[in-house]
Amino acid sequence: MRNEKEIIDLILRFAHADDNIRAVVMNGSRVNPNAKKDPFQDYDIACLVRDVTPYQQNMSIPPFFGEMLVMQTPDDMGDAPTGNNDHYIFLMQFMDGNRIDLSFHSLAVMEEIISDSLSLVLLDKDGLVRPLPQPSDVDYFPKPPTAKQFFDCCNEFWWVTPYVAKGLWRDELTYAKCHLEIYLREKLLEMLAWYFGVRTGFQKAPGKMGKYLKGGLEPELWALLERTYADAAPEHTWDALLAMGELFRVTGRRVAAEFGHNYPEQDDRRVTDFIREIRRLPRDAQTFENRE
Residue 288 has what pLDDT? Predict the structure, then answer.
């Protein structure tokens, strides 16, 4: 596997040889001083160019960087190309394990690229890039929720919860799992990010999809989070759904108390009782009676 110096040297060799490229900036975890280094971190490379057109659908570019495992060009995906001349990107996964996300951007959007706090200038041929602070992940710290954001998160979580229960009762595995793992999980992770912020003084990043949450949660809450992941067994998925509700409740109440927001206790209690009744409901039932 090629090391970081070899990959950076290769990128710079490519950029130096192309007069259209005027600057190169690296973003992402490779420049994050708080990210643990590992062999699979992407190289997020932004080339600032006079004209993006020469790179669009130019399949002579990827082979320069190595033997390809699989590649994607998002700007070409969908029913028709977007025709956007401000940027173009090659997402390249190589056989040796390295991955380079190589993007080309018009000089007109330079400020947008370098405004990311995780930015390191690798090349500036004309001195166009203003001095940047040392890279940090400050832009990725969670921010305290407004009352509206908190309400919306709670409302969506408890609104979607019965969908999972109905899907489980009907033996509709994919329906139940999609609502659990996509919609509910998204809101749970949103709440956990706020809770992580409270625990860390909003001075650390929970990471993409909460990958660093473990370092900011109490062991008992991390164990509860683990219980929200289930296999395909319906009873295990029921248990995961209830564990998800419990974790949302515990962290939601604490976030609410921290910022003076209102946690929807009535929605929580009624929905939780409602899904417990669904779980007890015989599979051949023709009617439903909520015995609250």
Answer: 81
